[in-house]
Amino acid sequence: MPVQKGQFVDAVKPALEGLLTDLQRTTEVLRRHNRKSKDYDDKWESTSSQFSYRAKRTSGVENGDLDRSLRGQSTGRDSTYRDSLRESGRDSTRLDSSLDQTLPADFQTIPRGDCGQCGQAIVGEVIIALGQMWHPEHFTCYQCGDQIGHKLFFEKDEKAYCEDDYHENFSPRCGYCQLPVKERAISALGKTYHQEHFTCAQCGKALDSEGYHEKDGYAYCNEDFYQTYAPKCKGCEKPITAKFITALDTHWHPECFVCDVCSESLFESTFHQDGVTFLCRTHYLLKYGNVCYQCQEPIAGKCVTALGRKYHLDHFCCCYCNKMLCSGTFKHLHGRLYCSPCFDRVVV
């Protein structure tokens, strides 16, 4: 596992220290057990020798010495034998008791460490948490005292809490229901919400922390926010949610802002107002400006006036040779313009 910024070392250090302490304690227990085992062997050999000696004496009484007893051996010697036999039995009983008390405690069960709550050695099941070892019954919630055991717990300021008490004391409160937020939370409007409680103020649809609009402290989905608060297009009366055009205090979708006559888009082009409508330049000039007699197109710039008509400068020319004419140097016949040479040649 790669180590990043010492996080792995910090995470396993308490466990490694606990295992090292465990090993040291186990070594000490085994050493004490070996010493007690040696003491027991020495004691056993001594007791066995004494018991063997006394048994031989007993055997002698039972077999070859019976005649001497019958011949009047003193009562005091018989009493001494009986006392010695009883003492040997008591030594054997004490030795068995010593074995019963010593072997189960040191040999059959090895302490795993000291409990973080009571300070006593832990034999059997152990819980490792918060960098310490615990008896299962001593690993409890700091708030309510209930046993945590192997259940989920949370740590705060080096203290263990059960799930309910941790959330009750430290988790943020939902801005809608005021209960602790235990799982996924949504942060919005300066508050924290359960995922299912962060909803549109208009339609109640669930929202997320990125796809909503705020107005007067309330959250709205896109559709309801635009429908309620967005400006309406003058052309289609629908909410404007993106780029728009403002003209004469009205708002338009770019695709709705068109000439009232030809429906040509007026977006990023010259337009003219015609009452409450808009006209492109061409239709505005056609309606209100000068129109060239020759091409019937509006005249936007300079023009030539002749015979009560108006012409574009480049359209005021001889109808025969297309030579540009100048005012006062042209002739006409049947509404057609001629230069002098062409008129003389064609007409005359």
UniProtKB/TrEMBL annotation:
Principal subcellular localization: other
Subcellular location, record wording: Cell junction; Cytoplasm, Myofibril, Sarcomere, M line
Ligase in keyword set: no
GO BP of this protein: actin cytoskeleton organization; heart development; muscle structure development
Biased composition (Basic and acidic residues): 79-94
A Pfam family hit: LIM
Record-annotated LIM zinc-binding domain positions: 113-172, 231-290, 291-348
SUPFAM superfamilies: Glucocorticoid receptor-like (DNA-binding domain) (SSF57716)
GO MF entries: actin binding; metal ion binding; muscle alpha-actinin binding
Record's keyword annotation contains Metal-binding: yes
Annotated region (Disordered), positions in chain: 54-98
Keywords: Cell junction, Cytoplasm, LIM domain, Metal-binding, Repeat, Zinc
UniProt superkingdom: Eukaryota
InterPro entries given in the database record: PDZ-LIM_domain, Znf_LIM
PROSITE patterns: LIM_DOMAIN_1 (PS00478), LIM_DOMAIN_2 (PS50023)
Entry-linked Gene3D superfamilies: Cysteine Rich Protein (2.10.110.10)
Cellular-component GO terms for this entry: adherens junction; filamentous actin; M band; stress fiber; striated muscle dense body; Z disc
PANTHER family in alphabetical order: LEUPAXIN (PTHR24214:SF62), PDZ AND LIM DOMAIN PROTEIN ZASP (PTHR24214)
Protein name per the record: (pine wood nematode) hypothetical protein
